[in-house]
Amino acid sequence: MSDRERARAIWAAGDFPRVARETIKDVGPALVAAAGVGPGQRVLDVAAGSGATSIPAALAGADVVASDITPELLDAGRAAALVAGVGLEWVEADAEALPFPDASFDVVLSSFGAMFAPHHQVVADELLRVVRPGGTIAMANWTPEGWVGQFFLTMLPFLPPPEPGALPPPAWGVEDHVRALFGDAVSAVGFERRMQVVDRFATPEALIAYYREHFGPTIMAYRSIADDPERIAALDAALLAFATRMNLAADGEPARYAFEYVIVVARRAAA
Ligand SMILES: C[S@@+](CC[C@H](N)C(=O)[O-])C[C@H]1O[C@@H](n2cnc3c(N)ncnc32)[C@H](O)[C@@H]1O
After folding, report:
1. Ligand 1 atom 6: the closest Cα is on which residue?
2. What fold is seen in the domain 3-144+162-197+260-268?
3. Quick count: other Cβ atoms within 10 Å of Cβ 75?
């Protein structure tokens, strides 16, 4: 299976639009505000999924292209945009080979999206290529030590090995890594740590059951060990231990989690 087929299979599994709506709903509007998106700007959202960031960008008045490698998510985004009453362009595209001319956008956004493409330098070069000189690249990236970074680390031993040359997604949440990727091609780059609070699950068990049912990467982890009951029991135990350890609530109270991410805002150097 190629990188591209593998990414599509992961993100089309389950119900990512629901997970985005129910767990990370504040991030898209926060990223749009941090990027200063406004009327008249031409904006690209890379790995846009079902439009969690692209739709708020369009609601802010920008002319938005939402791109993603998973056609099922673009379909969900089209439907969500209709409900929101905004028009956007939806384009199937790999973040490592964007089908757009050089310098064709004022702002390039990505919320927990471009970070999942395996070859980070290729992605960084593509983001820099399609934004105009003086334009803005703004990303929301999970950190390695935060909730989602640790969740992926817990599932890692149960997933098929990554392609050779693939880098771990949460490296995009590390300041030195991002600075090295953008290098001299940016004139400024800022980092701000934020938290998405998630308090919709009564217990750690309820949280794990939800991700096991709806979240593509967790579904894929279970699928890849489906014929091995001992490995399934080990993954169950590892996820429950993780969700219990990360629960911030006091005993007897509904579970409460804080998903740490970093907002990166970079300015492409003038030509
Ligand atoms: C965690 S989801 C985030 C989606 C959306 N940005 C959001 O905030 O809800 C990750 C997204 O990355 C997309 N993706 C993964 N690898 C990709 C690649 N190489 N090129 C483009 N999109 C990719 C997936 O299809 C999925 O929509």
Report:
1. 48
2. Rossmann fold (3.40.50)
3. 13
